[in-house]
Amino acid sequence: MSRFVDLSHSVADGTVTYKGLPAPSICDFWTREGSAQHYDDGSSFQIGRIDMVANTGTYLDAPFHRYADGDDLAKVAIERCAALDGLAVHAPGMAADAGLFEALDVRGKAVLVHTGWSRHWGSDSYFEGHPFLTEAAARLLAERGAALVGIDSYNIDDTRTRRRPVHTALLGAGVLIVEHMTNLGALPASGFRFTAAPPKIEGMGTFPVRAFAEIG
Which residues of 154-188 are buried (b: 16+ CB within 10 A; e: fewer)? Predict the structure, then answer.
């Protein structure tokens, strides 16, 4: 029997994901009370409205996020982000370097980097001093053909600098990125399938996903 592990944060009204970007505003567009007048059988419906930036909650970065000529969300084929063989890699330090991945066969796989930083989600601590991948690690994963790299941290790059070499290397090689993950500690090192499929939207490079793993 297989089981599923949810790897996404919930998105709620007012949740700040990335410092400096606005939180989502979630409300009713059509209330149950207001909708009842349109039906003779007592039916009522809620239609919600959400106003948000794309970098909200647990989200996927497609190449268009970094490169104007890269694939946008609509061009990301299902097989690039769904039912991928997964690897969970524990990264105990602040900088996840190439040595963590050197002995792994990452080709075609989703490589999920477990730092434990998601424990700070929802607090001010989440935004500062977070773990990240090094440029050397990103280049190794790109060169060895990883399909996707995820992390349970604030950013896959080191935000203490004004450079983004990890996004540049991975997205430049067509490797998808999933940031702000959670619950990676519930995964085995291997033997699971990973899915993080965004909506099929043209002209956007980032959008929230319901990321999950199927084990067994």
Answer: bbbbbbeeeebbbbbbbbebbbbbbbbbbbbeebe
